[in-house]
Design goal:
Layout: H1 5-14, H2 26-41, E1 49-51, E2 59-60, E3 68-75, H3 87-103, E4 108-118, H4 124-141, E5 144-152, E6 157-165, E7 182-186, H5 193-203, H6 205-211, H7 218-228, H8 236-242, E8 247-250, H9 255-266, E9 269-272, H10 274-277, H11 285-295, H12 301-306, E10 313-317, E11 327-334, E12 338-341, E13 344-345
Parallel strand pairs: 4-5, 9-12
Antiparallel strand pairs: 1-2, 3-6, 4-6, 7-10, 7-11, 8-10, 9-11, 12-13
Helix pairs in contact: 2-4, 3-4, 5-7, 5-11
The chain binds magnesium ion.
Magnesium ion binds next to strand 8.
């Protein structure tokens, strides 16, 4: 349907030789045409699926006998802006948030179910780019889109359910951290990057530099890309299981906040070591420092500690663990409650003057 419509309309309205771009909206294409067009983006490789897109429901192979399931919703204006991120970026991010939650249980992502709603005047091309972004992020994680639904709404809404497989292992929960464990992070160079990238976009500083004909620093562009397309370390989830992880979570709300969930669920104190956090390969201090100076932020460690949306994995391991290079030790678990930095209980954004840039 999508392949034939543009030419037909162009011929009707323009006449031969006039190649003015014709934008087809989702209202013009209709729901069934839109679903048919989206489906082409998800491919026909259905490994892991018994029945994929195109029937009343999908049938997904679950050899383990258990299925890991999570769902997450992105709403235009609240979680993304169409003038700040491309459709493909939003697709990548929507998929990544869900796939990272599967990895954070120690599981391998298998399948996504995608709910999409948008205004009738939205270009079909935009929706297809969104679908392509979702499909591309799925292939990074080894998952497939198994089905979905579309509807009309005033704002763009992308609601994704992800399913995963534990492969016979026990799920890694938030409640298993024990005093004496070490805390480690996987997802090299990502911590604080998405928050710094968002601050750069919000400030408009890169747009002003581009208008003035100045080339943006590659380090800053990479931070912006981290905001638009987080890069969760999917393989590190099952790897953490093999390493004997006692608890795990992905960083979506910020390291301190997410470790706070682990500390609460486990009944422990998690003590982070600043000198291990604010360095390569956990974070990118040079890029973060540059971003802070560009947007007028007084310090950059706050992004590392409280920035969300990086979707790195943070886990606790028994003290005698031998961590591979994919995991960086950043702290310890002790008796007590909450999250501390260098032994001081975290109580807000102030008090870290020694890290101001
Ligand atoms: Mg999570």
């Amino acid at each position: 349907v999508f392949d034939t419509l543009p030419q037909a309309r162009a011929a009707d309205s323009e006449g031969p030789g006039n190649y003015r771009e014709v934008v087809i909206t989702i209202a013009e294409l209709g729901e069934f045409g839109l679903i048919a067009a989206i489906t082409t983006k998800f491919g026909d490789d259905v490994a892991g699926l018994e029945v994929g897109v195109g029937d009343d429901a999908a049938v997904i192979l679950a050899p383990d006998g258990r299925v890991v399931a999570t769902t997450d919703m992105l709403i235009e204006g609240r979680h993304f802006r169409r003038d700040w991120s491309s459709a493909a970026d939003i697709g990548h991010k929507a998929a990544a948030r869900n796939l990272a939650d599967i990895a954070a249980m120690g599981a391998v992502p298998i399948a996504l179910l995608v709910g999409f709603a948008g205004p009738g005047h939205l270009a079909v091309e935009w929706v297809l780019d969104l679908a392509a972004g979702i499909a591309a992020e799925c292939s990074v994680a080894g998952a497939k889109v198994a089905g979905g639904d579309t509807s009309r709404a005033e704002l763009v809404i992308v609601s994704i359910t992800a399913l995963g497989d534990l492969g016979g292992a026990a799920p890694v929960r938030r409640s298993g951290a024990r005093p004496g464990d070490v805390v480690a992070i996987a997802g090299a160079g990502s911590l604080g990057a998405a928050a710094a990238g968002l601050a750069l976009v919000e400030s408009g500083v890169l747009a002003r530099q581009a208008e003035a004909g100045l080339a943006a620093s590659p380090e800053l562009l990479d931070l912006v890309n981290s905001h638009r397309r987080p890069r969760p370390p999917y393989a590190a989830g099952p790897e953490a299981v093999r390493l004997g992880a006692t608890s795990m979570i992905d960083v979506s709300d910020g390291l301190i906040a997410d470790l706070g969930h682990v500390a609460d669920a486990s009944g422990v104190l998690i003590d982070l070591t600043a000198s291990k956090l604010a360095v390569e390969p956990v974070a990118r201090p040079a890029a973060l420092r540059l971003a802070a100076s560009q947007v007028g932020a007084s310090d950059w460690l706050t992004w590392v500690l409280t920035g969300g949306d990086d979707h790195v994995l943070v886990a606790t391991f028994p003290a005698d663990v031998v961590l591979p290079a994919s995991w960086s030790e950043v702290g310890t678990v002790t008796k007590g409650h909450g999250v501390a930095l260098d032994g001081q209980i975290w109580s807000g954004t102030g008090g870290w003057d020694h890290f101001r840039s």
